[in-house]
Amino acid sequence: MTVRYRDGIEIELSDGTRIVCDADDPDGDVTVVSHAHGDHLPDGETTAVCSALTAALGTARRDEALHRTTDDRVELLPAGHVAGSRAAVVTDPDGTRYCYTGDICTRSRFYLSGFEAPDVDVLITEATYGEPEYQFPDHDDIVDQILDWLADTDAPVVLFGYALGRAQKLQLLAEQAGRTVYTTDAVQRVNEPIAEHLGVEFPAANFDESVELDVGDALVLPMTTARIGWIEDLAEEADAKTAGFSGWAVDSAYRFRGNFDTAFPLSDHGDFAELCALVETADPDRIYTQHGSGDAFAEHLTSEGYDATTIKQNQTSLSEF
């Protein structure tokens, strides 16, 4: 068996078939796309094993189409990360089972079911929050804190979260708190395929220069716009309160780095404890970690008796670690 991190994660099967996951320019025999965040989507028009919703979202978010296909060697499992996200279980002709998680979350929340780890021989897992200090509060407690803040804040609010993932949840929470919700075209383009595929209704009206934010309003914006000048001017002119939403908010410094009035650890990833539980359930013979705290998580797993290694770009799993 061979697992490589080149342009994406490559799994080479015993018959020479190359399964390439989340590559910018995939060149394998089978292409897999786990979800429609920009750092996981291929460049250009592509045909890939992915969910129907990921294909729709990938097409909606860029100029080139993402076409969906299937392959008998690849089983997709709900990853719990964002709408349409899937982990890939790849079965080698020799019987070896691989799981490439992509980004995952094991907590069920809103319209998403948490990832349920399969029993596999080789696990290739993200480790974004793979260190003990990253422990998230109970999800329902976080939601209650957000709703309380929205109810108690006597001002318009500007809520920042990723256009795919947090932004949809923030719209639902703002509506639940009785706010009038606005968002941008970038978020609306994401809302539409999710509404069509999952039957979730999002309450936001389009925000443009004609809208004047008032008390009781909530503007949901992509996280990438948080430091753009006109957004800062808008918040100041409307005397709005700003909030950032990310797992990194477990560190109080996150709020100050983002210049937010407040921040909440609302995350679409698993925390350290959930990643550990995932590994225990999958019970693999070999583990590769990537992203975020990959090194630290691999070291922890090794100390627990697992055969774990961080997979690094342009190294292979057989002889170069």
Q: Can you identify the CATH superfamily of the largest domain?
A: Ribonuclease Z/Hydroxyacylglutathione hydrolase-like
**Spatial order of the strands in the main sheet?**
7-8-9-10-17-18
Looking at CATH, which topology of the largest domain would you report?
A: Metallo-beta-lactamase, Chain A
Structural class: alpha/beta
* Highest CATH level, the class of the largest domain: Alpha Beta
| Number of separate helices | 8
- Assembly level: single chain
As a whole number of angstroms, the C-alpha radius of gyration is 20 Å
**CATH structural architecture of the largest domain:** 4-Layer Sandwich
* Proportion of residues in extended strands: 15-25%
Question: What fraction, in percent, of the residue positions are helical?
Answer: 25-40%
Largest sheet: 6 strands, mixed
* Overall pLDDT score: 94
Low-confidence region ranges? 316-321
Q: Distance between the terminal alpha carbons, to the nearest Å?
A: 15 Å
- How does the overall form come out from the CA principal axes? globular
Q: Report the strand count.
A: 18
